[in-house]
Design brief:
The chain is of the alpha+beta class. Strands 1, 2, 3, 4 and 5 form a five-stranded mixed sheet that branches. It contains eleven helices and five strands, in the order αααααααβαββββααα.
Length: 313
């Protein structure tokens, strides 16, 4: 049975009004609460509020100086944390000195190298600058900074290996069908001298040119292949060698040929180190850099040594 609206609506209103009247008829909404009532309410609130810890006191220094403290940037904080120890400066360093700190980053290694220079520890500073290149994965700017430092320092220091009898033997080969063998041999010897100097006499490079018979077709430019070999580390082992790299060159331009040989040597060692070692990768060909400088300043002395040692027999 449905209740008519004219009956249900007034009934609801009467019930609501009755409840409100009975609940509020004894309350005084105009007079302010007494102090006793406020105290009771405060006690009830203290008992019912969540169990939260009290607020920490404010640092008195902050109250005295309203200037906000500027937080350190993440880069600054990281640089402060990544400090590479200089080691015992009274001991002679090894060629691989600081090599285990490459994971600290190039910025930390540059900071170490700079500090060593200010202390006149130039041999160690040179090693640290080299570690920027070969173990710290530098960006282009950091690499260039290290290269310039190596150019500045190395000329004032003696070769790393003063004893020629203790160097590592290496042979630079070239094969071509060329009439003037002396031109190719001279280009090889120039590259070999660059490597000897760049490695600090750690590596001693000999040269060998192999001349093949021509096909009878006369062209200004001919293919030339270059590769490295080293003697076996054992009496019964095979000779270790690298895969060859080939390029086209004009034998009638000896200076250009020498530059091409140097560039080919750089490409060869760059490819070898990237596949056979864990060194930081070398750049392909930085813009504006001469091939001679690539061999002398972009490949470190440690890289030259490990290049020879990592050649497979």
């Amino acid at each position: 049975m449905r209740v008519p609206l004219y009956f249900s609506i007034p009934s609801c209103l009467i019930v609501a009004a009755g409840v409100w009247y009975l609940g509020t008829k004894d309350e005084d909404f105009t007079a302010p609460p007494t102090p006793e009532r406020l105290a009771e309410v405060a006690i009830e609130w203290e008992k019912s509020r969540p169990n939260t810890p009290p607020p920490k006191p404010i640092n008195a220094a902050l109250l005295a100086d309203p200037t906000p403290i500027k937080p350190k940037s993440s880069a600054t904080a990281k640089q402060e944390e990544e400090i590479i120890p200089a080691g015992d400066l009274n001991l002679a360093p090894s060629l691989s000195e600081y090599g285990t700190y490459g994971d600290k980053g190039a910025a930390a290694m540059i900071h170490l190298a700079t500090q060593l220079e200010t202390k006149a520890q130039f041999q160690r500073a040179l090693l640290a600058w080299e570690r920027v290149i070969d173990t710290s994965n530098p960006d282009e700017k950091e690499r260039l900074q290290a290269v310039r430092a190596i150019q500045r320092i190395r000329g004032s220091l003696p070769p790393w290996n003063p004893d020629p009898s203790a160097d590592i033997s290496l042979t630079l080969h070239a094969g071509a069908t060329i009439q003037d063998k002396a031109v190719l041999e001279n280009a090889l010897k120039m590259a070999a001298a660059l490597i000897d100097n760049a490695s600090g006499n750690v590596v001693k490079v000999d040269t060998q040119a192999t001349i093949g018979k021509g096909s009878g077709i006369k062209t200004p430019r001919i293919p030339i292949a270059i590769w490295f070999t080293r003697p076996s580390s054992t009496s019964e082992g095979a000779t270790a060698e690298t895969p060859p790299i080939s390029f086209m060159a004009d034998p009638k331009q000896p200076e250009l040929l020498a530059s091409q040989v140097a560039a080919g040597v750089y490409a060869l060692i760059r490819n070898h180190l990237s596949t056979e070692t864990s060194f930081s990768p070398l750049p392909e060909y930085p813009a504006g850099v001469q091939p001679d400088d690539l061999l002398q300043f972009y490949v470190t002395r440690l890289m030259w040594r490990e290049f020879v040692k990592s050649m497979k027999e």
